[in-house]
Amino acid sequence: MSTTTTAPRARRALPPLMQLSDAAVERLRGLYAGGQEGKLLRVAVNTRGCSGMSYDLSWADAAGPGDEVVTDKGVTVLVDRKATLFLLGTTMDYETKAMSAGFTFVNPNEKGRCGCGESFHV
Fold first, then answer.
1. Structural domains of the chain in order of their starting residue, each with its CATH number
2. φ and ψ at 6, to 5 degrees?
3. pLDDT for 17-45, tens place per residue?
4. DSSP 47-92
5. SS3 for 5?
6. Would the pTM count as exceeding 0.85?
7. How far apart (Å, rounded) are the C-alpha atoms in residues 84 and 77?
8. How far apart are CA 86 and CA 111, in angstroms?
9. Which terminus, N or C, of the chain has the lesser number of Cβ atoms within 10 Å?
10. Measuring CA to CA, which residue among 16, 119, 15 is closest to residue 71?
11. Terminal-residue alpha carbon distance, the chain
Protein backbone atom coordinates (compact mmCIF):
# COMPACT_ATOMS: atom_id res chain seq x y z
CA MET A 1 0.00 0.00 0.00
CA SER A 2 1.40 3.39 -0.94
CA THR A 3 0.37 6.77 0.28
CA THR A 4 0.60 9.94 -1.70
CA THR A 5 0.68 13.32 -0.12
CA THR A 6 0.10 16.49 -1.99
CA ALA A 7 1.15 19.90 -0.90
CA PRO A 8 -1.71 22.22 0.00
CA ARG A 9 -2.72 24.54 -2.79
CA ALA A 10 -1.37 28.03 -2.46
CA ARG A 11 -4.17 30.44 -1.66
CA ARG A 12 -4.56 33.71 -3.46
CA ALA A 13 -4.03 36.65 -1.17
CA LEU A 14 -7.22 38.49 -0.29
CA PRO A 15 -7.34 42.25 -0.68
CA PRO A 16 -7.26 44.16 2.60
CA LEU A 17 -10.66 44.45 4.23
CA MET A 18 -10.60 48.21 3.95
CA GLN A 19 -8.07 50.93 3.20
CA LEU A 20 -8.12 54.61 4.10
CA SER A 21 -7.23 57.41 1.72
CA ASP A 22 -4.86 60.15 2.88
CA ALA A 23 -7.82 62.54 3.16
CA ALA A 24 -9.78 60.07 5.34
CA VAL A 25 -6.73 59.54 7.57
CA GLU A 26 -6.28 63.30 8.01
CA ARG A 27 -9.96 63.81 8.88
CA LEU A 28 -10.04 60.87 11.29
CA ARG A 29 -6.89 62.06 13.06
CA GLY A 30 -8.57 65.43 13.55
CA LEU A 31 -11.75 63.83 14.89
CA TYR A 32 -9.84 61.44 17.16
CA ALA A 33 -7.78 64.33 18.57
CA GLY A 34 -10.80 66.61 19.01
CA GLY A 35 -14.36 65.96 20.08
CA GLN A 36 -14.19 62.19 19.51
CA GLU A 37 -11.01 61.63 21.53
CA GLY A 38 -10.88 58.12 22.95
CA LYS A 39 -13.49 56.80 20.50
CA LEU A 40 -13.22 54.80 17.27
CA LEU A 41 -15.26 55.10 14.10
CA ARG A 42 -17.31 51.96 13.32
CA VAL A 43 -18.32 51.26 9.71
CA ALA A 44 -21.32 49.02 9.10
CA VAL A 45 -23.71 48.26 6.26
CA ASN A 46 -27.45 48.42 6.89
CA THR A 47 -30.46 47.50 4.82
CA ARG A 48 -32.20 50.69 3.68
CA GLY A 49 -32.49 53.15 0.83
CA CYS A 50 -33.68 52.82 -2.75
CA SER A 51 -31.02 50.29 -3.74
CA GLY A 52 -31.17 48.20 -0.58
CA MET A 53 -27.98 48.93 1.39
CA SER A 54 -26.25 51.94 2.88
CA TYR A 55 -23.10 52.71 4.83
CA ASP A 56 -23.64 53.40 8.51
CA LEU A 57 -21.01 55.25 10.57
CA SER A 58 -21.11 55.43 14.37
CA TRP A 59 -18.76 56.00 17.29
CA ALA A 60 -17.62 53.26 19.66
CA ASP A 61 -15.66 53.41 22.90
CA ALA A 62 -13.75 50.23 22.02
CA ALA A 63 -13.82 47.27 19.65
CA GLY A 64 -16.60 44.82 20.45
CA PRO A 65 -16.77 41.08 19.83
CA GLY A 66 -18.51 41.72 16.49
CA ASP A 67 -15.88 44.15 15.16
CA GLU A 68 -12.92 43.71 12.85
CA VAL A 69 -10.11 46.15 13.64
CA VAL A 70 -8.61 47.85 10.57
CA THR A 71 -5.46 49.96 10.94
CA ASP A 72 -4.14 51.81 7.90
CA LYS A 73 -1.53 54.58 7.88
CA GLY A 74 -1.52 54.53 11.69
CA VAL A 75 -5.28 55.18 12.02
CA THR A 76 -7.74 52.58 13.32
CA VAL A 77 -11.38 52.09 12.38
CA LEU A 78 -13.76 49.30 13.28
CA VAL A 79 -15.75 47.30 10.75
CA ASP A 80 -18.88 45.46 11.79
CA ARG A 81 -18.12 41.78 11.11
CA LYS A 82 -21.51 41.38 9.36
CA ALA A 83 -20.36 43.99 6.79
CA THR A 84 -17.01 42.42 5.90
CA LEU A 85 -18.21 40.58 2.79
CA PHE A 86 -19.77 43.79 1.47
CA LEU A 87 -16.70 45.93 2.24
CA LEU A 88 -13.80 43.66 1.21
CA GLY A 89 -11.36 45.75 -0.82
CA THR A 90 -13.13 49.07 -0.14
CA THR A 91 -11.30 52.39 0.15
CA MET A 92 -12.76 54.94 2.55
CA ASP A 93 -12.18 58.55 1.46
CA TYR A 94 -13.12 61.99 2.75
CA GLU A 95 -14.40 64.53 0.23
CA THR A 96 -15.04 68.23 0.63
CA LYS A 97 -17.36 69.80 -1.95
CA ALA A 98 -18.83 73.29 -2.29
CA MET A 99 -21.94 72.49 -0.23
CA SER A 100 -21.02 69.30 1.64
CA ALA A 101 -18.25 67.23 3.15
CA GLY A 102 -18.12 63.66 4.34
CA PHE A 103 -16.73 60.17 4.15
CA THR A 104 -17.24 58.32 0.87
CA PHE A 105 -16.56 54.73 -0.14
CA VAL A 106 -15.01 53.30 -3.29
CA ASN A 107 -16.34 49.76 -3.08
CA PRO A 108 -15.39 47.22 -5.79
CA ASN A 109 -18.33 45.03 -4.67
CA GLU A 110 -20.98 47.61 -5.59
CA LYS A 111 -23.01 46.67 -8.65
CA GLY A 112 -25.01 49.90 -8.68
CA ARG A 113 -26.23 52.94 -6.75
CA CYS A 114 -29.56 54.67 -6.46
CA GLY A 115 -30.07 57.99 -8.26
CA CYS A 116 -29.51 60.08 -5.14
CA GLY A 117 -26.32 58.18 -4.27
CA GLU A 118 -27.41 57.34 -0.71
CA SER A 119 -27.62 53.58 -1.14
CA PHE A 120 -26.09 50.77 -3.19
CA HIS A 121 -26.54 47.13 -4.08
CA VAL A 122 -24.09 44.25 -4.52
1. 18-116 (2.60.300.12)
2. -120, 145
3. 899 999 999 999 999 999 888 999 999 98
4. E-SSSSEEEEEEEESS--TTEEEEEETTEEEEEEGGGHHHHTTEEE
5. coil
6. no
7. 13
8. 11
9. N
10. 16
11. 51
